[in-house]
Amino acid sequence: MIELVLKAVAAPMLLGAALLAIAHRLARKGDDSARLKRGGAAWGAALAAAFAVSVFVQDGTPRWPPAARWHGTVHAIAAAALIGLAASSVKNTFAVCGAAAVGAAIAAAGFVSLPRVDAVPWRGSLCAVVAVLAFALGTVSRRDDGWVWPVGGVVVFTALSGLFMQSHFAKAAVACGAVAACCGGGGVLMLVRRAGGFSVAGAVTVATATAVLSLTGYAYDPSGPLPWTWMLPTISLLGFTLAAGGRATKPGLPRKLIGLAWIFVFCAAAVGLDARARMSATNEAANSAYSPY
Amino acid sequence: MNPRNAVIAVAVIAGLGCVLGWRSAYTSEAGRVEAASATVESFTIDAVHSKALFRVHHLGAGMFYGRFNDVTGTIVFDGASAAGPQFDVSIAAGSVDTGNDKLDGHLKSPDFFNVAEHPKLTFKSKSAKKVGDKTYEVSGDLTIHGVTKPLTAQVDWTGTAEGRGGKRCGFETVFTIKRSEFGMTYMIEGGGLGDEVRVIVSLEGMIGGGR
């Protein structure tokens, strides 16, 4: 158990934090404020790297076509990170943000091929959700890309990790834990001014990862008693954009806190309701002794 | 003929008829059995009386057992021939049963059998040869977790019987595989669960009805 946490959570977290610190260091050279901001473009790459490393530490070396269909999530999240990185490298406008969102959405629909939800309507829905969420989060990140983002990321990916664990998909649970840890580690670096702001790259990557992983959880959990709980982390991020965005000015502390509260309430509800439903759906007395770890 | 003699004659004729008829029926039944044993027959696997069990080392301590409840397929067999049986067996991965719902859920997840992507475990024999009085060496392709590997196993013919509305034959085999060879590596590292899995398969095939 300790070995698994070190290899599949701590190591990916350190890798992501190292990417953020290196990007920040490189961006500081030249004392250019625009380049300083650009250091945050590594957020997407850091999160994608943490997820990818965690998956492959647990499930073997990457290959194409993927060994398991859920490995397509790695490609989708990596593509979103690259698209976000490219978007952060050019002028940060609504048009660029929209283009990045559409690009990430197309990549998600293209790479993610899951059992149960492989039909065109499902892929179309995923494409639409990623596009809307990535654009909404991207526009919020244009006004404020500070500490609220890694905190929100920790909550969302911890909730997804909990949902995966409750559905007995431990590998995905650990990989989501690695992304949550990377958000936490990057957040600490941000606080001590050793990492740039979350940027459009981070926002687009978080949007894609949340939507794609939620659908993955639903696809591999056919006997889940409350399948709609998989939607709540994604809905929590939409609520966050409504609370923290919506105006042309940078959101103040109250709006940030309301946005975070929205994320926390929805994510806690997802995990709590799912846990309660599963407990009542199984013979608790007979099964309480089992844990995957 | 007086009535008394007529009754006796009818009784004797009827008795002879019964005896001859019974003998005829018995002979034809036996003949069918003998004829059947000399021809290749295709048996449908009786899911009620067939099971696949597995045994794996847990935490380097105890051996835990699980089973698959849904075993289907066909057996082609001629007991009189040295050619041996042919198997086409399909096991529903979702029928895994350890007696613990949570453990069953974990075994069905992508961490192990990945039932959503690979709903069937299959074995299709390619050849068989007789190596003992009632033992055959059967070779074929075993598919688990979407990975197909050749397998050779000793299979015991446990018997053939007729009754309950049909003819039946039984086979049993025990063999060991490495689950890592089938891409199922979860928890091998660190010794959570062993790599080697002992598999015990007991099959009963039937022709006709039955229960």
Task: Give a written overview of the molecule.
The complex is a heterodimer of chains A (293) and B (211). Chain A is 75% helix and 0% strand. Chain A is mainly α and 293 residues long. Chain A has one domain (2-285). Chain A is globular. The model of chain A has no long low-confidence stretch (mean pLDDT 89). Chain B has 2 helices and 11 strands, in the order H-E-E-E-E-E-E-H-E-E-E-E-E. An 8-stranded antiparallel barrel of chain B has the order 1-4-5-7-8-9-10-11. The radius of gyration of chain B is 25 Å and the shape is globular. The relative contact order of chain B is 0.17. Chains A and B meet through helix 8 of A and helix 2 of B.
List keywords for this structure.
heterodimer, A: 293 residues, mainly alpha, globular, B: 211 residues, alpha+beta, 8-stranded antiparallel β-barrel, 49% strand
How is the biggest beta sheet of chain B arranged? 8 strands, antiparallel, barrel
- Biggest sheet statistics of chain A: none
Radius of gyration of chain A: 18 Å
Give the % helix of chain B.
Answer: 10-25%
SS-derived structural category of chain A: mainly alpha
Which segments of chain B are poorly predicted (pLDDT under 50) over 5 or more consecutive residues?
Answer: 14-37
Total of DSSP H or I helical runs spanning 4+ residues of chain B: 2
Strand content of chain B is: over 45%
Q: Quote the average pLDDT of chain A.
A: 89
By DSSP (H or I, 4+ residues per run), the number of helices of chain A equals 12
Q: Give the chain pair forming the largest contact, with residue counts.
A: A-B, 31 and 20 residues
Helix/sheet category of chain B: alpha+beta
Low-confidence stretches of chain A: none
Oligomer: heterodimer
